[in-house]
Amino acid sequence: MGLEELKGAPEERETLFRLFVGDNSDRVIEIFRAQEKGEIGIFLNWAVILFGSVWFFYRKMPFMGGLYFVIPILVFIIFPRNSVIFFLLYNPMVAGVADALFVWKARRCINRSEVMFSDQEQREAWIERKGGYSMLGLLLGVGVEGGMLLLAT
User: Fold this and answer.
1) Residues with Cβ within 8 Å of residue 80, at least 6 apart in sequence
2) CA gap 135, 128 in Å, rounded
3) What tens-digit pLDDT sequence spans the chain (153 residues)?
4) What parts of the sequence cross the membrane (predicted)?
């Protein structure tokens, strides 16, 4: 079993996934269901297009938020002449995979919880705490994004 595959009945997996996502899980649950069926698709996340890395920090994915900044810098350093095309396509490309990355993180967390906890109540509390969103992450993302904008000017 890979980290992406979840055990248990589909209803239980969806319930745990909803716990991880938190409020407004309906949009992301569609992606979860599609992945459960083995479908691959691109689901454009408008929040990522509008707010960039802030969304990753808000959704407790600081590593991805950091990568969001590092990748364009590396592209500019390595391919300075071709970077304009990359920059035009970068946000839509990231927005197309952001939700899939979030679903992958949820699956990973749910699988870990199964190994870590035998008590269902503890497991659900841990999943809920690991998922959702973070206001501190939101502030951190805004600070990082603002700092990058200041450095760029």
Assistant:
1) none
2) 15
3) 444 565 666 678 888 999 999 887 787 888 888 877 777 767 788 899 889 899 999 999 999 999 998 898 888 888 888 777 887 889 889 998 898 899 889 989 999 998 999 899 999 999 999 999 999 999 999 998 888 778 777
4) 40-58, 63-79, 85-104, 133-152
